[in-house]
Design goal:
3-stranded antiparallel beta sheet, 2 domains, binds NADPH dihydro-nicotinamide-adenine-dinucleotide phosphate, mainly alpha
Length: about 475
């Protein structure tokens, strides 16, 4: 596992090119300043339908044994009305509100008040105070990296409860899944709305705000780049990682406990989902400092897309395989289980190694070895909002010479493995691979558009050297 000591911008070669009077020059990289009709249409579609999509999936499992077709057939044939389905849906309960409030409060406590201790005894782990990337306004934020610690403490308490204290049943998440959905929505909307108001009245860094003038776009994609409360409570880092990703593995454990309760055993498919997604989650926290340099933190502003997405979309739709397996306990043949495990592990290896190669390359400014050789790269330059010119490098060696986003390819292989654990009886568990393919392909295009705005002709030289995006020779 890679140790990640992030490169400080002060280590980058830079010099001032313009500093003309009081007007602040606007750079073109970062989020869009103007909204095209296609982005606006997509945003309106997502604002209206994403909450319904989540509800539809969860309701299908609750009322239709995870069939996505049967509710439609019932509605189209008049067998049921929307009100019948709605009336059968569990409402918000005091119990769920209590559980959710405690959960979020506990994660806030771990994030804000418990400085990282893990980096003091875990070799190779980078935690504690770390610097993020330089923002378009030229700001470098400091972050308290303590996600791994929060994940460990939370899981130790979970297992201590399950095997020793018995304060609550390990099936608690599954048992309150729909009432918790309403709580997650309340938080998702509240935080996105708060972030919007905050950006107008008390932004953390006014120069890193982007107003397009379109209310829906600004609400969805965010205005503030790095909203914070106080010195350390960073919205993006908190909501991206906790409560959603810490919860991911607990949700899967709760599904496994439910299988045990219902059928007296946990199937090998459920174990595979727990293990493969557990590796992905642990990897995320182990590499949290590296995560500061990913698109989510480096380039996305904080709006509904991240706020609501992290509170609702992620915990509810990324865990569909485990939920499905509670209703359909699939016991895989050993050969199939091994095949799926291999696909998941190879996907994970590609995902991690590709990310590691870029991180190592950037951290050492190219003074490293990739597959035993000095890496090849393209020199490029860009400008921050105050007119400072920075220099950077785009690597063309290792997996980065195979395709421009081979890390996404590995991620997609892992995602497919999760879905395959569920067999082929229903399409619901395959939502994840379909969604990830759309997300990562769109992300590829979005990132490349941004990189082109940032690096200009240097980016063109790079795409000429590495012509494929995801699959060498194909796309
Ligand atoms: P990348 O880690 O690929 O970062 C892209 C950035 O890296 C570019 O904007 C550019 O930034 C820099 N870069 C691009 N090409 C090169 C190169 N050849 N050499 C050096 N630097 C380069 O993308 P993400 O942040 O989107 O993804 C990080 C990981 O997170 C991926 O593995 C992805 O699969 C995963 N992910 C998972 C999601 C999930 O929901 N499960 C969602 C999103 C991502 P710069 O401006 O610094 O040059």
């Amino acid at each position: 596992m890679a140790a990640h000591q992030e490169k400080k911008p002060s280590e980058e070669r830079k010099h001032k090119t313009t500093q003309n009077g009081t007007r602040t020059p606007q750079v073109q990289w970062g989020r869009a300043w103007e909204v095209d009709w296609f982005s606006l249409a997509s945003i309106l579609f997502l604002l209206m339908f994403a909450p319904l999509i989540v509800y539809y999936f969860i309701m299908s499992c609750d009322q239709y044994q995870c069939s996505l077709i049967d509710p439609l057939i019932d509605l189209l044939t008049g067998n049921k009305h929307l009100s019948d389905i709605w009336n059968k849906t569990l409402t918000l309960t005091y119990r769920a509100a209590g559980i959710y409030t405690l959960w979020v409060a506990f994660q806030v406590f771990l994030y804000v008040f418990v400085p990282d201790f893990c980096h003091k005894f875990l070799p190779g782990y980078v935690g504690g105070v770390q610097e993020g990337a330089v923002t378009p306004a030229g700001v470098v934020n400091k972050y308290e990296i303590n996600g791994l610690q929060a994940w460990i403490i939370t899981h130790v308490l979970w297992f201590a409860n399950a095997y020793y204290f018995h304060w609550f049943s390990p099936t608690i998440i599954f048992d309150n899944w729909i009432p918790l959905l309403w709580c997650a929505n309340v938080l998702g909307y509240a935080v996105s709305t708060f972030a919007m108001i905050k950006s107008y009245f008390f932004p953390t860094n006014a120069k890193d705000c982007k107003f397009t003038g379109n209310f829906f776009y600004d609400y969805m994609m965010g205005i503030e780049f790095n909203p914070r409360i106080g010195k350390w409570f960073d919205f993006k880092l908190f909501f991206n990682g906790r409560p959603g990703i810490v919860a991911w593995t607990l949700i899967n454990l709760s599904y496994a406990a439910k299988q045990q309760e219902l059928y007296g055993q946990v199937t090998n498919s459920m174990i595979l989902v727990n293990v493969l997604q557990g590796i992905y989650v642990l990897d995320f926290f182990w590499n949290e400092a590296w995560y500061l340099k990913t698109i989510d933190i480096c380039h996305d502003h904080f709006g509904w897309y991240l706020g609501w997405g992290d509170c609702v979309w992620l915990p509810y739709l990324y865990t569909l395989q485990g939920l499905y397996l509670v209703y359909h306990p699939v016991q895989l043949r050993t050969a199939n289980a091994i095949g799926i495990l291999m696909l998941g592990l190879i996907g994970y290896y590609i995902f991690r190694m590709t990310n590691h190669q870029k991180d190592l390359f950037r951290r050492t400014n190219g003074n490293c070895k990739i597959w035993g050789k000095k890496p090849e790269y393209i020199e490029c330059s860009y400008m921050s909002v105050d007119g400072t010119k920075y220099y950077s490098k785009l690597m063309t060696s290792g997996f980065w010479g195979w395709a421009r986003h081979f890390n996404y390819t590995g991620d997609l292989m892992g995602s497919l493995a999760y879905c395959l654990t569920c067999g082929f009886e229903h399409i619901l568990p395959y939502f994840y691979i379909v969604y990830m393919t759309i997300l990562l392909t769109h992300r590829c295009i979005r990132d490349e558009h941004r990189c082109f705005s940032k690096y200009g002709k240097d980016w063109k030289r790079y795409t000429a050297a590495v012509p494929y995006r995801l699959i060498p020779g194909i796309f």
